[in-house]
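Deviation from plan, reported transparently: adenosine-5'-triphosphate complex.
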Amino acid sequence: MIEAHDLTKRFGSKTAVAGIDFRVEPGRVTGFLGPNGAGKSTTMRMIAGLDRPSAGSVTVNGRPYRQHTAPLREVGILLDAKAVHTGRSAYKHLLAMAATHGIGRKRVREVIELAGLESVANKRVGGFSLGMGQRLGIAAALLGDPATVILDEPVNGLDPEGVRWVRTLVRGLAAEGRTVLLSSHLMSEMAQTADHLIVLGRGRVVADASVDEVIARASGTSVRVRTPNLAGLNRAIAGPDVSVSTLDDGAAVVTGLSSEQIGDAAASAGIAIHELTALSSSLEDAYLSLTADEVEYRSTSVAPTPEEVAR
Ligand SMILES: Nc1ncnc2c1ncn2[C@@H]1O[C@H](COP(=O)(O)OP(=O)(O)OP(=O)(O)O)[C@@H](O)[C@H]1O
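Because the crystal trials were delayed, the predicted structure below was used instead.
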């Protein structure tokens, strides 16, 4: 169990984590989501005792990470797989970690096998691909057979077989009653892997609910629209509760109106519509609508320009 109370982290004038409360319960996979810069890594670093909270607290199994006498046996963490730059072999790297925590060779061999690293166990870690590095990081996280496992972007760089391996592994860990916290930007993967979600936006919790609830809550609130006359459509549907943002591929996502309302408004204004899709069925859609206001860098507003309004 991981518990955060009023957890806060400031870097100078920047508040990365703004007084959040959450619980990560055992026996299920909890997905940790949020746009870039939302505060996920900072929160994970505080859980792992690598960053000190500016205020508030976070405990793992009732204690701050650093107060555990055998932290590796309590919490397994994969934070930054690229952090391992060593001339040692994977086996020697894990053996050295194990030795400092009183863990035997047998367990080292077990995690090498578990991570599918047998064929490269004696190769230099420095020459590993990103995917191999991820597997090694996961093997290291599991070395102490911990009750709590925290994995930051574990499928990053993995091929489809590796992605499936992580999914099966974390589901198995949760089924054994362990606490599993997992971050990923891959929503389709998260939908298949997680039971529960904690979504951050600009350092705050914007959702803490089951995957099904998150999807249900966003149901019917967003519609993807393609039209050759987006500015005209914008005028036709403008209203206080309506917002429109563009996607990279030129489509627009409208929130605050149903597909029917948008289609009718476009028909009345004589505007051609090439696509009208209710975005309610996938976690990705739910996530995008949930975090639409929280994205610092990506979304582009397509509010009409003054010239368009004047026309
Ligand atoms: N050491 C630091 N010094 C200053 N600002 C920092 C530091 N670490 C993080 N930040 C800032 O805090 C905010 C949260 O960053 P964090 O890395 O926790 O976000 P994230 O949700 O993990 O993002 P990503 O998905 O991109 O990994 C960002 O605005 C980031 O620039």
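The radius of gyration is 23 Å. We consider this an acceptable substitute for the interim report.
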